[in-house]
Amino acid sequence: MKDKSYIWISLIILIFGIWAVPKIIKKFEKADLEIIGTAPKFELVDHNNKTITNDNYKGKVYLVEFFFANCPTICPIMNANMLKIQDTFYGKLDFGIASITIDPTRDTVEALHTHAEGLGVKNPYWHMMTGDAKYIYDLAKKFNLYTGVNPDAPGGFEHSGLFALIDKEGNIRSRKDEHGNPVVYYDGTSDEGVAWLKEDIKALLEE
Fold first, then answer.
1. What angle separates helix 191-205 from helix 75-88, to the nearest 10 degrees?
2. Mind listing the pLDDT tens digit of every residue in the chain (207 residues)?
3. How are beta strands 186-187 and 162-166 bridged, if at all?
4. Cα–Cα distance measured from residue 91 to residue 95, given in angstroms and rounded to the nearest whole number
5. Are 177 and 6 in contact, with CB atoms under 8 Å apart?
6. H/E element, 134
7. Which of 22, 89, 118, 157 makes a 20 to 30 Å CA pair with 83?
8. What per-residue confidence (pLDDT) applies to 145?
9. Which residues does 168 contact at the CB level (< 8 Å), separation at least 6?
10. Are 200 and 167 in contact (CB under 8 A)?
11. Which GO terms of the molecular function aspect are on file (predicted)?
């Protein structure tokens, strides 16, 4: 009887090992997303009047966008899509969002607080940030995300609708296109871009 018991126990251990080991290995695998480079460091003030730096996002997967609250063109689309992403990962405390205004004169702490409340920001690590204008524009250049002042543009500013995806180690990450080239940044104005982000954020959270 004892021999049979040992056989059954051995079989159970073997079966569990066959099932569990690939999952354990997968847990420590890197997602198939290109590392573009290290995200630039920053120090800004958020809509709750708290100083926020890269350290606040340490150990988190997060998105970076440049926007402004009075934007009449693509920002409302970007905001709506960011809300969809927030809702998808609601309750995940290792996911965050960094929204940086390019209109700091109007987008004061108080203005961003009102904007965040009206928008429906619930993630405690979604920080809408403001600061010195030159500092912000220099930061956008370091990210290689287009921003600019243009009195002739709607709202007086121009910027891309792209989101940067940052992993838990502070690296900018990107999926590859059908030709094997990294897309680098994700289109925050398109359904496809949002779908890609949901997939890739999930993959990075599991790293």
1. 40
2. 555 566 656 556 656 555 544 444 444 467 899 999 999 999 999 999 999 999 999 999 999 999 999 999 999 999 999 999 999 999 999 999 999 999 999 999 999 999 999 999 999 999 999 999 999 999 999 999 999 999 999 999 999 999 999 999 999 999 999 999 999 999 999 999 999 999 999 999 999
3. antiparallel
4. 9
5. no
6. helix 133-143
7. 157
8. 97
9. 58, 59, 60, 61, 94, 204, 207
10. no
11. metal ion binding
pLDDT of residue 16: 56
Query: How far is Cα 203 from Cα 89, in angstroms, rounded to an integer?
Result: 12
Give the bridge partners for 126, in sequence order: 97
Tokens of 65: 């966008």
Instruction: Tell the residue number behind the tokens 């899509």, with chain if given.
Output: 81
Cβ atoms of 44 and 130 closer than 8 Å: yes
Residue 182 to residues 62, 117, 164, 172, 198: CA-CA distances in angstroms?
18, 35, 12, 11, 17
Select from 196, 204, 123 the least CA-distant residue to 162: 196
Which amino acid makes up residue 150? N
Q: Report the distance separating Cα 62 and Cα 3, nearest Å.
A: 54
Give CA–CA dist 39/96, Å, rounded: 14
Locate 66 and state its tokens.
Answer: 């440049």
CB atoms within 10 A of CB 71: 22
